[in-house]
Description:
By secondary structure, this protein is α/β, with parallel strands linked by helices.
Amino acid sequence: MSSAPLTGTGANRGVYDVVADRALSLDVETPLPWVRVVRLTGELDRHTAQRLSSCVHAQLNAGAEHIVLDLSLIDLLRPPGLAALIEAREAAVAAGAVLHLAGICRPEVIVPVRDYWRPEMFDMHRTTIEALAAISEWPSTGELRRIPASRGSARGTAAGGH
């Protein structure tokens, strides 16, 4: 990542923002008609949080009942990115949907999550495959069955909160 030159005088000397090279890629997949998987790649911070919010709202408006956010390729997760995830959960709950987080296995994601969240805030899974299995109950029944979002627990999880 490149850094911007230091600017400012007096007390502000050395205060700068790095804007160059900040990017967030959002790839949306539809593994089941009522499910969207959004794979995030890059940095989720104040410069990119609005892109995630817009994407989640678009999926909810398209009728998604379950949205899996795959964070396994996130390089940087800052407090504004965490706030965007919380807002996405609130939007999903308001729409009668469930937001699942997957790929919380790298230090770039584990540390901010551990420091700022209560575990019950999200339906979290190690992998996207595990999240999809929880949504569909496929491994335990041998069939892909639709799990309505309304069947989740009080925290908005499907299949009993994995």
